Please model this.
Amino acid sequence: MVKALVTVHYKQGILDPQGKAVQNALRSMTVKGVSDARVGKHIILTFDELSKSEAEEQTRKACEKILSNPVIEDYEYDIVEDGS
Amino acid sequence: MKFGIVVFPGSNCDHDVYHVVGHVLGETAVFLWHKDHDLQDVDAVVLPGGFSYGDYLRAGAIARLSPIMTEVHEFAGQGGLVLGICNGFQVLTEIGLLPGALIPNTTMKFECKPVGLQVAETETPYTSGYQKHQIVRMPIAHGEGRFYADEATLDLLEESNRVIFRYVDEHGEPTESANPNGSQRNIAGICNAERNVLGLMPHPERASEALLGLEDGIAVFKSMIQERLTV
Model:
């Protein structure tokens, strides 16, 4: 089984109010030194039948077509073998 | 005139639009189920407000894949009138009929209140019944209404007079305090280059009867009817 671990987040330069709220919360909890916090989405796709390279191709397609909106978001992913 | 109102799972302003065009204005209104592929020969399509597919992933991201959207896209391409209100605006940006995107309000709140708007342009089938630069009031009700586009797109929208509604104060100034959601350049509504597709976050259908306290929205629907009569 192959899994794609996809992360989607706002492009740099787009204000992320949720991230700002998290940063402020961290400061109030005395977590020091956090200069920025950004909140994104984590999406896990499971492929039962595909090879790693096939899964990567499908994952890229998914990211481009629907999982991210290129106007506002960037994405990245890892393709991992999952034996469980 | 025959209005078609698309119903997605999670639409919740579909009946409000139906009421305004059908009962208040006495025109024909039909609901268009999202799974159908038939626009029923309507003269205009309205994508109503609501939370289609629970706003999962991004507001409008899944609704744009609905079967009926193939026909709506085609209809828009042929010059048909397509009006997207609130969630409908989000769907129109996701499907690429309008540029930009609508992202969570900078206030981090669901903003539900009447706001001041300037009708920036009247050269559209949706605003011909207003005076240019008229200041009107309509309610907004959204958590993800911050209009975002890159600077080049924003410049293009302004240069081609495609910013149709702007959030303004009582003097008609697009101030920061008049901007309820952090939209770039106070943009509340835009149209496409051909001017037959309009998206806006405020709700004209909730401001179309004196009984409800605001009537400034009805001119959107009246303009559409007038446009149909003059074609």
